[in-house]
Amino acid sequence: MNLQIAVFLKGLAMGAANVIPGVSGGTIALITGIYERLINAIKRCDITAAKYVLSGQFKRAWEHIDGLWLATLLSGLAVSIVSLARLFEYLLEDYERYTMAFFFGLILISIVYVARGVKNWTSSTYAALLIGTALAVAIATLAPASENDSALYVFVCGVVAISSMVLPGLSGSFVLILMGNYALVLGAVSTFNFGIIIPMALGCGFGLIAFSHFLSWVFKRYADHTLALMTGFVVGSLVVIWPWKTAVTDMVTREGKPPREIITSYEWFLPGLQNTSTWIAIGLMIAGAVCIALMEKFASGGAENR
């Protein structure tokens, strides 16, 4: 029972993280040690599982997809979306710098624990770390592309967006902004424009299954290099989480809905140490680091849960 509670709490953390710019559910899954199991569970939602269901072998299908574990995790994520996520949305609205400071400390210290998973640091794993960092930083600083409502391009957007949501340190919504179709997809959902929704959903479904298979494959064959690359993604995400920055925004319009402001890039700066707010933010960074250290301490005894 304690193990299921721990999985549920990790689902809560994944759901809450999705509202923080630069923090993805994949990042939290990686930090808390459940990333590879999550990928494998998604991968098992395949033809074999479908055959079990169609033949009435529901128990075998449930066991095949690691159903109890996956359902517990998704339950925590769902509860978070309708409860904790709203709290974080409020904090981001009124206390953005302090909220980002807390998550900056949390992500910063988590890099140490994630990197410990690499059993053998070599020149190639260090190269993978640098590549991951460079890619994450490059994505954070790219200029958005123009909107494109081509069905094929929308399908590709779905594949890339869902894949980036699975990867640690990358935000699916931010990737959609960079690909130019954030407003298009947002408007399509609000107006039930199935000409956009269907290729987007197909892209997300295809991308989730295909990418989970790919990640599972590379984890089995190149575990150290894959983990080093993902550690780099997390390092690079610190650029977006840095508390002292000014967002460059743009307004997007949606049919039948009020205009919505979106972030297209950032302008970073260093804090003034004479300001009280700076020291409060630093204190929250330390608090975030302590939280992840405590989480790691309590989770270390339940390796079978990972």
Description:
- The longest helix is centred in the C-terminal third of the chain and has 28 residues, at 194-221.
- The two termini are 15 Å apart.
- This protein has one domain.
- It has helices spanning 2-17, 25-31, 35-43, 47-54, 58-64, 67-82, 84-94, 96-115, 123-141, 151-166, 172-178, 182-191, 194-221, 223-241, 276-299; strands at 245-254, 257-268.
- The protein has 15 helices and two strands.
- With 306 residues, the chain is mainly α.
- Helix content is 71%, strand content 7%.
- Helix 10 (151-166) runs antiparallel to helix 11.
- The protein is globular, with a radius of gyration of 20 Å.
- Strand 1 (245-254) and strand 2 (257-268) form a beta hairpin.
- The chain has a two-stranded antiparallel ribbon with strand order 1-2.
Mean of all residue-level pLDDT scores: 83
- Strand composition percent: 5-15%
Percent of residues in helices:
over 70%
Low-confidence stretches: 302-306
Q: How far apart are the termini?
A: 15 Å
Indicate how many domains the architecture comprises: 1
What is the strand arrangement across the widest sheet?
1-2
- Multimerization status: single chain
Q: Work out the number of β strands.
A: 2
Number of helices: 15
Structural class: mainly alpha
- The coarse silhouette is globular
What summary fits the major beta sheet?
2 strands, antiparallel
